[in-house]
Structure formats: C-alpha cells, structure tokens
Amino acid sequence: MNAIKPEIHLHKGDLPGGLNFGDAVAIDSEAMGLKTERDRLCVVQLSAGDGVCHLVQFAQGEYNAPNLSAVLSDPKVVKIFHYARFDVAILKRYLGVDCQPIYCTKIASLIARTYTDRHGLKDVCRELVGVEISKEQQSSNWGAEELSESQLVYAAGDVLYLHRVRDALQQMLVREGRAELAQQCFDFLGTRAQLDLEGWGDTDIFAH
C-alpha cells in the first residue's frame, strides 16, 4: 500500500470553527523536546483518517485555542494517539484540557504484538498498514516561526494512518482476549499524565 499524499492545512493559533472529525480523531503533538516541564508545545496535528491533516501552530506563550480545546475535550470523540502519555500531559499543561476518551496505539501494540519489541509508529505502520513513514524531521526545530514543507509532511504522517492502525490492533486485542485490559490502560492515561506533570514521571508508583 502506498503512502497517502496528504492534504495539509496549517492554522496559526487555533482550528477554524465548524470542523468535524467524526467520532474518532487522530492526534499528535510536536514540542521543543520531550520534557513537559521544560519544553513548550509547538504544534498539534489532527486527522479524521481521510487523508486530510489540520495542523495548529502555536507562538510562544499563546495557547488560547477554544476550537481545538473543544475537540480535545469532547467526550463523544475518541482521541487516537501513539504514545498518548506524552501528548495527553503536554496538552493538559498548555491548553488545560483533559483528553477523554483515549485510544493509544502504542499501548495497544505492546499488549497485542507480544511477538516483537518494535512498537514505534514507523514499525507499526509498516507491518499493519503496509506504509513506510519517515521520521527524519522528528528532532527538528518545531519552534521555528515558519515550518518547512518537510516538517509539515512529517507531522501529517504521524496522524494519517492512526485510524487504520487502531482498527488492526483492536482486532488483534479482541482475538487474544486482551481488549478489556487495553481499555483499562487507556482509561488510566489521564491519571498517568497528571502524575508526570506533578513530578512522578520517573517513579514506579506500583513498586514495592
């Protein structure tokens, strides 16, 4: 299966009003680094799984995004992430939203694909939907005032296939009798993100 040629829409500061992502929206975020207490949120990308990606770019210190926040907090819309723990935490810190309900394809992969240790989005997309996605811009400067075409395409690639990945993983979870276990993990993600934000990121709270 060939990679999708995405239709990309870049928005400054917030989504336009009136967008409808259906009952499930794929979401990812880009920041200046991976420490939510240090590194600012720069971009949030969203897709309904239809080949269209909407990117919201934030200027430093400007995080009033009511339209985006409404999508993220809508209880009727499932938010699909890959490694939701980071995204949920940074979205809560900068936008003040609690993302629920959540489906994390990284957690689903870890619980369903126990035959491999490759659970990155690139590996999951290759196996489950037959698509090669590039990770070349993963460590680029997302805080730049103007994003490059390569950055936009990279960001879109992180959400375009998540609906298909979710569907494939859910079939595996059901087949192996692990769907309920995965759901319980998804339900805990809001609490896990809050623990990260309050300083327990590196602590195993279940350890003896």
What does this structure look like?
- The protein has helices at residues 66-73, 84-95, 105-112, 121-129, 149-157, 162-175, 179-197, and strands at 7-12, 24-31, 41-47, 52-57, 78-81, 102-104.
- It is α/β, with parallel strands linked by helices and 208 residues long.
- Strands 1-4-3-2-5-6 form a 6-stranded mixed β-sheet, with helices on both faces.
- Helix 2 (84-95) packs across helix 7 (179-197) and helix 3 (105-112) packs parallel to helix 6.
- The radius of gyration is 16 Å and the shape is globular.
- The relative contact order is 0.18.
Short note summarizing the structure:
With about 210 residues, the protein is of the alpha/beta class. Helix content is about 40%, strand content about 15%.
